[in-house]
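Postdoc handover notes: sequence design on the structure in folder B. Input tokens:
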């Protein structure tokens, strides 16, 4: 069977304004996160986890946790979700 001819494709060049605007936007987006961001993210994850663990172990003995009752789960999981959302934006 004969081999087909390979056609050259023309090279696409975007308009000048699009190329400059995109490179400036990408430079702004691609900057790494500051050090405090990672510390806050890890702290929120750990605080949420510790809140729930303390509630399970000693929730009956801590007065403000008794008054919060089921809201303790919302506080703990809320802190962990905030840490997870921060982890998605971490660079």
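Designed sequence:
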């Amino acid at each position: 069977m004969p081999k087909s001819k390979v056609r050259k494709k023309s090279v696409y060049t975007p308009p000048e304004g699009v190329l400059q605007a995109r490179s400036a936007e990408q430079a702004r987006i691609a900057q790494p996160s500051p050090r405090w961001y990672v510390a806050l993210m890890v702290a929120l994850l750990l605080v949420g986890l510790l809140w729930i663990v303390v509630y399970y172990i000693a929730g009956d003995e801590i007065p403000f946790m008794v008054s919060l009752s089921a809201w303790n789960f919302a506080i703990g999981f809320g802190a962990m979700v905030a840490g997870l959302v921060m982890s998605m934006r971490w660079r």
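Context for whoever picks this up: Residues 48-91 form one domain. Don't rerun without checking with the PI first.
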